[in-house]
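Running co-folding for zinc ion.
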Amino acid sequence: MFLDIEELELHPLDFEEEFQPDVIDLGSEARQKAPLKASGHAEVVEEHHGKHEVIKDIRLRGRLSASLELQCARCLEPVPQQVKRDFELLYRPLGTDAGRDELSVTDAEAEIGYYQGEGLLLEDVLREQVLLALPLKVTCKEDCKGLCPQCGKNLNQEQCSCSAAVEDPRWAALKDVRSRLEH
Ligand SMILES: [Zn+2]
Ligand SMILES: [Zn+2]
């Protein structure tokens, strides 16, 4: 859904949208399990830059919710993750960064972004907001045992025999020492 600056100038826009999985590219970190829901309000805000220049920003307020699946950082099994986020964003035309302090409207709460050309794609905004809402790392459970570094088996599901094999020589060496001490 494209938020066109010229159309928004004519009338603000209320939106309520659903995006099927794969419409919004969340990269390899997250998989979307159900339609992502987003609703909100978009409008143009004018900022005065100096005495003569008027800058047209797009202000976007809304919320989103999504059912995602992330990957456990230890065992790589899928971990369900609900994401809910309210956002309040102000997009300035790309290139207005210089003299940012001189701009008249300063929305203390709004995050500032930039749009290029005619406007901005709602999907891009949502993608960024979802990624910002994700935790850096998830584990399927607090005491996830992870994968065996040798054979790759999921140690939550089965015990492999690698650890025993690793310990064997050490035990053998210890026994050897003990037997020498005893004799
Ligand atoms: Zn895990
Ligand atoms: Zn193993």
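Result summary
The beta strands are 2-4, 13-19, 31-32, 36-49, 53-71, 78-93, 111-115, 119-121.
The pocket of zinc ion (ligand 1) is lined by residues 72, 74-75, 77, 139-140, 144 (CB under 6 Å).
Job closed.
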